[in-house]
Write a structure and sequence with these properties.
Oligomer: single chain
Order of helices and strands: HEEHHHHHH
Number of strands: 2
Number of helices: 7
Helix content: over 70%
Structural class: mainly alpha
Radius of gyration: 18 Å
Distance between the termini: 37 Å
């Protein structure tokens, strides 16, 4: 089927699927980069980073002389770097969506994770961060992320976006390159 003959809703659905997969993988990558940066600036030693499409990402640091700094660096840098990129490259709805995605995902991870003490939230609580701090940081990130998404328009407006075969090809190529890098690094 040619690009012109494909229904626009099918193109939009395929684009959305590829784009969301890229958002998920790159959100994890930026989050883990934050932990790595936190470890480096606090004289910790990164022993292993897991960033793979078939796993939940994580960064192992030993020794870790400042676990709070390393742990907070993941979600905070994981939010700030995409925001900086969005500020530099204005008028990119895809980058704005990705920035919002990072804010919502990291915010939910920190605040919702505090209930069961899982992942970074558990480490933060174990090392002295208050649950209120996790809720405030997570809630603020989530609200900012939803605000960025709201600026993009309603779901009905997004469904009217024109998605070309080139847009789909670029997302597929980015996903393929990302997964290839992850497999090589595993």
């Amino acid at each position: 089927m040619s690009d012109e003959a494909a229904p626009s809703s099918s193109r939009l659905a395929l684009f959305a699927l590829l784009f969301l997969a890229n958002c998920w993988l790159w959100m994890q990558g930026v989050h883990e980069l934050g932990h790595v940066i936190g470890a480096v600036v606090s004289s910790g030693h990164v022993t292993h980073v897991v960033w793979h499409f078939a796993a939940i990402s994580r960064t192992d640091v030993f020794p870790n002389p400042h676990p709070l700094l390393v742990c907070w660096a993941g979600p905070l840098i994981g939010c700030v770097l995409p925001l900086i990129a969005n500020c530099i490259k204005r008028r990119s709805p895809q980058l704005q969506f990705f920035s919002g995605f990072c804010l919502v995902a990291n915010g939910a991870y920190v605040s919702v994770g505090s209930f069961d003490g899982v992942g970074d939230a558990g480490v933060l609580l174990q090392h002295g961060s208050s649950i209120a701090t996790l809720w405030i940081v997570g809630g603020t990130a989530g609200v900012l992320g939803f605000g960025m998404w709201h600026q993009l328009g309603t779901l009905g407006q997004l469904q009217r976006w024109s998605v070309s075969g080139r847009d789909i090809s670029l997302q597929a190529m980015l996903l393929t390159i990302t997964v290839a890098i992850q497999v090589l690094l595993a």
